[in-house]
Design a protein that fits this description.
single chain, about 130 residues, about 0% helix, mainly beta
């Protein structure tokens, strides 16, 4: 239901230095503590970014995916656009790119950790 809304349109950016980022929204109907985020899988043009190169940022703070396990006091609110960054990557060429974001959440009342994914063609300005 929320899958088509994960990637924030027009948010693909090259980072100063190295890497690229995309805006992402929580695929859930209410805000959650960051500690429930099991995984965020980034793909670009069919290639998966290694987990250790993914960073999550919201409200001016940045964490690795492993650091999110301990973030019980920080939240990702419904509709809030977080920045998911691929560090240690080359910047992207101008033009169209297939970007994928999959978010796996640990929901207390579910016996499994659902993964919701979105893939969009995004254009990087030159």
């Amino acid at each position: 239901m929320y899958d088509q809304h994960i990637i924030y349109p027009g948010s693909l950016r090259n980072m100063d230095g190295e890497g690229w980022s995309i805006g992402a929204r929580l695929p859930y109907y209410r805000g959650q503590p960051l500690s429930i985020v099991e995984d965020i899988i980034l793909t670009i043009d069919g290639a998966t970014v290694p987990r250790e190169q993914v960073r999550f940022s919201v409200r001016g703070k940045t964490w690795s995916l492993d650091q999110l396990d301990d973030c019980t006091a920080e939240r990702w609110e419904f509709g809030e656009v977080a920045t998911v960054t691929a560090v240690g990557q080359q910047g992207l060429a101008a033009g169209e790119h297939q970007v994928g974001v999959a978010v796996q959440l640990r929901i207390s009342y579910l016996p499994w950790s659902p993964t919701t994914s979105c893939t969009r063609t995004e254009t990087l300005a030159g």
